[in-house]
Amino acid sequence: SKGTEEKIQQLQLFEQNLQNIMLQKQALQMQLVETENALSELKDANMAYRIIGNIMVSTNKENVAHHLESKKETSDLRIKTIEKQEKLIRERAEKLQKEVLGEINEE
To answer: How far is it, in rounded angstroms, from Cα 16 to Cα 20?
Structure first.
């Protein structure tokens, strides 16, 4: 039926959304690991540097640590937000899938 076809299209959209969300989450998780690695390296370092434009300048180690901690918190928060979105879309997709299967079995 037409309603079933529309629901199947909606399911395909959910699937595309999930794939996009997974890619975003993966990128953020990689960024988080890089940030955690940088923080770990910074603990043992005597000097700290930042890249500004095309040059590298020495800087205060504490400033770099603060910047990295802030970046880590932001990544953590964005990952949690994405995971909530992912969960919501999965739940909606499962509900819709059950509806579609029920309709197909009735036909």
So the answer is: 6
